[in-house]
Write a structure and sequence with these properties.
Order of helices and strands: EEHEEEHEHHHHHHEHEEHEHEEHHHHH
Largest sheet: 6 strands, mixed
Shape: flat
Radius of gyration: 29 Å
Structural class: alpha/beta
Helix content: 40-55%
Number of helices: 16
Distance between the termini: 20 Å
Length: 461
């Protein structure tokens, strides 16, 4: 792709600089510089003494623009390898004037620094062995986290929890692979160094772990992007009122006129650290209005895409038999796999059948009665208990794809082992499994893959 200056991604001799805080004016801005000439370039524009200063030292002084003082700053020095990138790094905390930010960057570039590309600081941290690839990706996830659950998973991955699990799997598999490779070297002597029963047990154990990680992606994707929740039901059941009650604001138009909501309305909130994305949909009914029909089709489409569906009905007028028929129809249209929470609204007007069934959450969206029970049910059905535990949850689509490919290779190896396949054919599948596991941490990777990953980062990180 050639996104970074060094196409082969070798360690660059350039000294790079960039604004690390958000673009625009603020109280304080942070400019970061990393590379072999960082200290020397900074010294040329800084009034304080950098040469001889210890690593992790903060110095107060002025940025000098020729003979003029540009800004009073705090400069922090990090000497490699004890820095984020593993190189000499200088961070300049200046006042947040856009002019000051741009002028400091110009001064640094006039002295020999070059502007960093997106993600280039984190790329250097990876290339210099400060972190592996999955940890580097977690840096981007941490910056983008919008909930406590997303933050927790990013921190777990950044600290190497996921990497350690993958490395352990690879090391155990490599041990047996080396035994099989040794057998191939002595093929004429018909010796067996790798016990086939032990190998089978190992492959099955590793496969179980890989499958667990692979299956966790559905939950991980919801953590990263928010749990999608579609609100469905017939017209005038209180869907829009429910959305407004959940969001605690008048987000959707509420009217007694059937068919008011003709398109989807989306918004999100965080409940106990978990982000939920709610989608209010058009009322489900038979209609001759073509625009309303399109809205209803979108409602069923959103139900298929959602992790959860809140099916809202009028508990004061709907019999249990009618509800059962409506839920059956919804499952037929949206798919059997859809997870539905029946929400009996308007309980303040009474309950037709009593609804003792725990599956039905009884609420009054208008008065707020039962809303806390609904929030608890959302947390239970979203798998929040799993999110609170410290086990690894896969949140990255690239990792999920690599795990799926590793699992397929392990399946093939087990199949070959059970049918008595020779060691050379077994090694083909084992090498594939090792390769795909290695892709996750960057032990195996291509320039194009790395360029793509780091190009999604913000400049300055």
């Amino acid at each position: 792709m050639g996104y970074f200056r060094s196409v082969n991604l070798s360690k660059s001799s350039d000294t790079i600089c960039a604004l690390s805080t958000a673009q625009g004016m603020g109280a304080i801005a942070l400019i970061r510089m990393s590379g072999p000439d960082s200290v020397e370039i900074a010294q040329r524009v800084f009034s304080g003494k950098l040469f001889g200063a210890a690593s992790h030292t903060a110095l107060h002084g002025w940025i000098m623009d020729g003979g003029n003082r540009l800004d009073e700053v705090v400069l922090t020095l990090f000497r490699g390898p004890r820095s984020f990138t593993g190189e000499d790094t200088v961070e300049i905390a200046c006042h947040g004037s856009v002019y000051i930010q741009q002028r400091i960057l110009q001064l640094l570039m006039e002295q020999g620094a070059v502007m960093a590309r997106a993600g280039e600081f984190t790329m250097r941290a990876y290339l210099n062995g400060q972190m592996d690839l999955s940890q580097a990706e977690a840096v981007g996830d941490l910056i983008a986290s919008e909930s406590a659950a997303a933050h927790k998973q990013a921190i777990h991955q950044m600290r190497g929890g996921f990497s350690k699990e993958i490395r352990t799997l690879r090391e155990r598999l490599i041990h047996f692979a080396s035994m099989i490779e040794l057998e191939l070297d002595f093929a004429e002597e018909d010796v067996e160094f790798a016990n086939r029963d032990e190998l089978r047990n190992l492959l099955e154990e590793i496969r179980q772990i890989v499958v667990r990680l692979e299956d966790s992606f559905a939950l991980g994707n919801a953590i990263r992007h928010g749990v999608p929740v579609a609100i469905l039901g017939a017209p005038n059941m209180g869907k829009s009122t429910l959305l407004n009650a959940l969001l605690n604001e008048d987000r959707a138009i509420v009217s007694e006129i059937p068919g008011t909501t003709r398109d989807t309305i989306e918004d999100s909130i965080v409940i106990e650290g978990i982000r939920f994305r709610f989608i209010d949909t058009a009322g489900l009914r038979h209609t001759s209005d073509e625009i309303e029909k399109l809205g209803i089709e979108r409602s069923y489409a959103k139900a298929k895409e959602a992790a959860l569906v809140l099916y809202v009905f009028d508990i004061s007028t709907t019999s249990y038999e009618d509800l059962h028929a409506q839920l059956t129809d919804l499952r037929n249209r949206a798919g059997e796999g859809v997870k539905i929470i029946p929400v009996g609204n308007k309980v303040d007007k009474g309950s037709k059948d009593g609804y003792a069934d725990d599956m039905v959450v009884e609420i009054s969206a208008k008065s707020g009665l039962g809303m806390e029970d609904l929030r608890k049910r959302l947390l239970e059905e979203s798998g929040s208990q799993v999110m609170q535990r410290s086990e690894t949850i896969v949140t990255n689509a690239r990792h999920h794809r690599a795990l799926s490919q590793a699992r397929e290779s392990l399946d093939s190896a087990l199949s070959g082992l059970n049918s008595g396949t020779t060691g050379d054919f077994l090694m083909v599948d084992i090498r594939r499994a090792l390769y795909h596991l290695g892709e996750i941490t960057g032990q195996i990777g291509s320039d194009d893959l790395l360029n793509h990953i780091f190009s999604t980062f913000c400049i300055g990180k």
